[in-house]
Write a sequence for this structure.
């Protein structure tokens, strides 16, 4: 039977398929009846589910990160599709293809080559040496290529961090041409390093926060990673180290966005604005791709942004002559 992906599910359909269990939580109704709240995914997207009967028994046999066999029906709740789960259990061996379940950047090696191409333009010997320390760290590179760019809002798939970093570097590279007084080397290195803490902040399978990620966050984690690499380089200039650390700590731009400090240099300002641009653009692009087939004018309400987004694309207005 041909597989139906999450993005193609419609209200009224019955499903009997294998999906990745990304989140589960045993909750209770107002009448104190237990039910299971879950989040499921395949390579096309994710969907919420609710299991109202036998919830405690199901909760005891499935776990986050597991591929599960799910039976149920698709229904609408507040204009969102969700699964009314009738049965859920661990999937049997050989019943699914991993490539169908986990979305991943398909051209990761091509993107990584382009990232290295930008880094090759760095001329400051100290910055170059620092960047090489990261590129030569096999464990870092493995994690960097496999990590999601975020938990859910943008680049939320395997290789998303690499893709996001490349997009930020592309914008930063162009900005450096427009503002010739900028320190290009700090900008390019800062663009590479701004989100490195995410390799430890997010679980690469479930995309949930790790204990370290939840308690500390990727900005301080990235700051520590950078500091350790700098400490291992003899004679690294203190002023240069401070500027690079500032880029990481300020790249969320505002205190309200959990930025410990505000961007106070041209280099940190450019990296912050590039990061903001590409993360928001990627997220809205994903919304449009996922919901454009609905035929509606607007996306579902996006709580994190307190708005809906227009779906109809480029409009033309004909003026009567």
């Amino acid at each position: 039977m041909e597989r139906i992906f999450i993005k193609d599910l419609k209200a009224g359909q019955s499903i009997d398929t294998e999906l990745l269990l990304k989140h589960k939580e045993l909750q209770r109704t107002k009448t104190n009846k237990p039910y299971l709240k879950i989040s499921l995914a395949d390579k096309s997207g994710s969907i919420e589910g609710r299991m109202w009967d036998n919830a405690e028994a199901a909760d005891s046999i499935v776990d986050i990160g597991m591929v599960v066999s799910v039976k149920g029906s698709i229904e609408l709740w507040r204009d969102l599709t969700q699964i009314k789960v009738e049965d859920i259990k661990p999937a049997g061996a050989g019943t699914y293809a991993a490539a169908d379940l986990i979305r991943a950047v398909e051209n990761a090696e091509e993107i990584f080559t382009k990232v290295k191409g930008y880094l090759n333009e760095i001329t400051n010997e100290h910055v170059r040496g620092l960047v090489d320390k990261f590129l030569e760290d096999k464990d870092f590179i493995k994690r960097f290529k496999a990590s999601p760019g975020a938990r859910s809002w943008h680049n939320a798939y395997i290789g998303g961090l690499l893709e996001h970093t490349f997009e930020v570097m592309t914008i930063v590279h162009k900005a450096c041409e427009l503002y010739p007084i900028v320190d290009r080397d700090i900008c390019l290195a800062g663009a590479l390093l701004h989100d490195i803490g995410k390799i430890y902040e997010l679980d690469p399978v479930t995309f949930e926060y790790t204990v370290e990620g939840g308690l500390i966050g990727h900005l301080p984690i990235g700051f520590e990673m950078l500091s350790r690499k700098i400490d291992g380089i003899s004679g690294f200039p203190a002023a240069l180290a401070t500027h690079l650390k500032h880029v990481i700590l300020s790249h969320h731009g505002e205190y309200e966005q959990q930025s410990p400090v505000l961007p106070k240099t041209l280099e940190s300002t450019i990296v912050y604005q590039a990061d903001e641009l590409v993360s928001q653009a990627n997220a809205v692009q994903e919304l449009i791709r996922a919901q454009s087939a609905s035929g509606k004018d607007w996306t579902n309400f996006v709580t994190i942004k307190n708005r809906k987004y227009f779906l109809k694309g480029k409009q033309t207005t004909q003026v009567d002559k």
In short: The beta strands are 14-28, 34-42, 45-51, 67-77, 80-90. The domain at 6-100 is CATH 2.40.50.140 (OB fold (Dihydrolipoamide Acetyltransferase, E2P)). The radius of gyration is 22 Å. The CA atoms of residues 26 and 36 lie 5 Å apart.
